[in-house]
Amino acid sequence: MILVAGATGTTGGEVVRLLQERGEPFTALVRSAAKAEALQATGIDTVVADLADRASLGPAMKGAESLFLLSASVADQAALQLNAVEAAEKAGVGFIVKVSALGADSESPLALGRAHAEVEEGLAASGIPHAVLRPGSFMQNFLGSAETIRGQDQFYGSSGEGKIAMIDARDIAAVAVALLTGEEHASGVHPLTGPEALSNAEAAAVLSDVMGREIRYLDVPGDAFKAGLLEAGLEEWLADDLVTLNDLLAEGAEARVTGEVERLTGRPARTFGQFVADCADAFRK
């Protein structure tokens, strides 16, 4: 049985959909009874547990052969995920697929990069066979700009002309499912990207072409970008991380394209144009 942590998120939800489509036995780990009821209504087995509550994780891990590990980007992410690793080790879970991030490193300028590195180190110390997925920026991040794309025909950032090999979250999920259900689990670190590297201006051109109207990218100073993030409700530490990330993107930190998605799933990664076409309703006036 596969246990899916983060089953109600963007990537985890797609993992659940793919496992259900394949008829694979799995259980979704959710934090509340309300979320459990919503999934159960669609025929999905669930278990209620909280990564912050170690006592709840032991029973949740019972019977799990593999674990998909993903949680929200919160300040205590490392502690939460290490709780899950500890519980998995005690329960005898045989394989873990963790979603990390490109650039995860104990010396990363990003708080999230350091947190992911801490969890990766904990996984290595646990002795549990595991695969680490390190995706770059998600195409789904554009959905956060859908309101200004609809209303103003533009979106904002501070990554300059830096090219970004964005990946569709659905492809991250497809890789995770391939690893979780394969005859032989492919341990190791897998850097995941889309099939092309685009600047935000080039992404705007793709949006314009697919949507049939001109959509522009406006590059703004980092302090103005941070102000917009704070206004949107992000915590300050996360806003600071995103400003720093945009600085790194401007320098080409995520410009390299890898072929890991196709190598591990047998099909090419989705292009940005495919993503926009699939999500066109979100960007349509």
Residue share in β-strands: 5-15%
| CATH topology term of the domain at 2-135 | Rossmann fold
* Element-level helix/strand string: EHEHEHEHEHEHEHEHEHHHHH
Distance between the termini: 44 Å
Number of helices: 13
| Order of strands in the sheet with most strands | 3-2-1-4-5-6-8
Radius of gyration: 19 Å
> In this structure, how is the largest beta sheet organized?
7 strands, parallel
CATH homologous superfamily assignment of the domain at 2-135: NAD(P)-binding Rossmann-like Domain
**Pairing-aware structural class of the strands and helices?**
alpha/beta
Q: Which regions contain 5 or more consecutive residues with pLDDT less than 50?
A: none
Mean pLDDT: 94
Given the C-alpha coordinates, what overall shape results?
A: globular
Labels describing this entry:
285 residues, alpha/beta, Rossmann fold, 7-stranded parallel beta sheet, two-stranded parallel ribbon, 14% strand
Topology summary:
Blueprint: E1 2-5, H1 10-22, E2 26-30, H2 33-40, E3 46-48, H3 54-61, E4 66-69, H4 77-91, E5 95-99, H5 111-126, E6 130-135, H6 146-152, E7 154-157, H7 169-181, E8 188-192, H8 200-211, E9 216-219, H9 222-231, H10 236-250, H11 260-265, H12 272-278, H13 280-283
Parallel strand pairs: 1-2, 1-4, 2-3, 4-5, 5-6, 6-8, 7-9
Helix pairs in contact: 1-7, 3-4, 4-5, 8-12, 9-10
Give a written overview of the molecule:
The protein is α/β, with parallel strands linked by helices and 285 residues long. The protein has a domain at 2-135: Rossmann fold (3-Layer(aba) Sandwich). 47% of the residues lie in helices and 14% in strands. Strands 3-2-1-4-5-6-8 form a 7-stranded parallel beta sheet, sandwiched between helices. The protein has a two-stranded parallel sheet with strand order 7-9. The longest helix has 16 residues, at 111-126.
